[in-house]
Automatic annotation (TrEMBL):
Transmembrane segments: none
Domain of life: Eukaryota
Biological process annotations from GO: electron transport chain
Lineage of source species: Eukaryota, Metazoa, Chordata, Craniata, Vertebrata
Listed name of the protein: WD repeat domain 93
Amino acid sequence: MAAYIWKHPLEIPPPSEKDWLKEDEEDFFLQDPDRKRDVLPQPVRMINKLVMLVFENAMEIIERKEMLQEAQKLKVQPAKCIPTAEFQVTGRANCLVVSGKYVFVGLSVGLAAFKVSGCKEVCAWDAVKTEICAVHASDLGNECHVLLAVDEMGLVWLFCFHKESFLLIKILNEVEDISKRSTCVELVLSPGADYAGVLLQDSTEAWLEIYRLPKDSWLKEMEKNPGAAAGLACRERRSSWTSVESPVSANKDDAELSLPVLLLKVKPPKPITGSSFKSPLDALKKVDDGSMLGLGYDHLIKDSQWEQQEAIFRSTYREYLEAEGERESKEDIPRRATFHFLLPSRILQVGPEMKVQPDIPAGISVHWDGSHNLCLYLLNHPLKEKVDSDLKPDVVWPCAAPIACSAVSSCSRYLALACEDATITIWDKHLGYPLSVTAILEERLIRSIHFLRSSAAASDETLCPGTDPACPIVQLLVLCTDSSFYLVKAPRAGKSSITLLADRPEDPNLAVSTVVPVLAFPSAALVFSWDGTVSLMNTATSQIVYCFSTPPSHAVACPWQPVFTVDSVNWCLLLRGDKQQQADVLAESRASHSTIFLFDFSSYPLEEAFPKEPDLPPKSLQNLPWIERCNIFLRDRQQSLLGLKDQLPEYWSRLQAQAAAMDKARQKVKGQKKP
């Protein structure tokens, strides 16, 4: 029997119940009179609703994850590749690099060298127990390698590895006064080890130093004095034992190798201020003095004009500025820069008195954080006793938006720029014009860009500078900050295209930490995820074809910043893995050993997943007569203009329509002037 029951008593409710929901104040029926005592009072009913809401949201998240797992199971799982070899190193491995037949490992206690074949340790440098955080190496030939390493204090160590011995040549940024010490932020070694670039900063400013490495002198000195390697290595170790604070000071006089030469010192652009010119003639005289155009310094705008325009802007958009909470702040000098070494090309015009070689860098490209300009500097300037402290760029490329990142292809022919407005430009440096200009329509920020090896063209690694591949398709891999990445294809003739390879993952553990091209295969890229997954993707099909897995007892170390290197010469991947019980940061920092896993690409059927088209023999422009080189240049220009023929009628019709509209407006004005 149903009973009609009032929800609340008839007396006036207490003030604490005034904010209850209205629907709870209505009458309701109980089908069972025995349940009268089971009804929860307020505010317990409100707490019950909140708990149920949290529970329902949790169930929705669980169901969504289960659906993703079921969809993942239905997908074709990529084949797993197990390591072909492994070796242990003493201490924590922070970085890896392969040069020739050696693997150099930067450790928490120094440097170590291993052979790629056999994975046996051949040499170790642990003189001062210095933790190496980054290392770069290049093979000079004659069993000689040059190494640049950065330690935890930001010091740059220059080594020469000869006959399985480390020779310390110099610490590039060592100073006697520790208060004036600068730290290394970025380090780049040019292909062939002719130059080295070091980005330094102190407490007040940042600057870029370019060094010329006398590698030819090193090779001659090694041949003349074969015993210098062992002798210098022994002296270096003895000096480090006697004086730990200054490991180089004891052996500076004993060093028998030539020292690198500081060639350039590049500072970030200064903020643009008001003009000091009294007339336009003074500005023209400044330009005639050889001052570089494009930086915006030689102008005629006074400080008062800028202050007036700033006041007008703030008074006009005052409400918007207040809503955003904008604060007035002075422009900070940029402290980070991205730079690349460039081989000779048409965009780097050198004088006839300067001799250039096709395989030696002729200049560098530099862009600072927040800057619109790409500055190019020549490296063939004559050496001076004192480096110019106010160096002007030789070429300036202004962009419409600040440059976010850049990349240079392995053959150094193509240069890509990605701006903060998601615009991507690919330049052909040999021909001197942009090959492609595309943009990501979605509002996404670009994190990094990488050139891939195209299956429709000859391999970049087989091309020498100045080659002319037959109608290649330049491919650029673009990684965004939300872990989505795109593929940009730019053919020499035709329109460029942009394809979404992978969208932003819903699971945060599947976020992409690093993307690296694999030049050993066409359209191949390694994708590192936060969950420790290392996948090999075929960008032509957007499919994951293989997955490199560590043994069950180990996991990929620091998946958000993995320690690895890809060797395109020996066709292998070296990856650091840690034991599962060392997953936490504290255990990882205390680990006495690290394991390096080697994945030999030739041991897996990777060539079946990346079919290779027959390569055409490259034609070197440097070895051809001038007539043939001019014919090739004209043919390239003709191919680049093929797409304009279809657009000419549309442009002509627009021009005719605009001329007709102007003529009509002119006739209308004349008619109005007549009485």
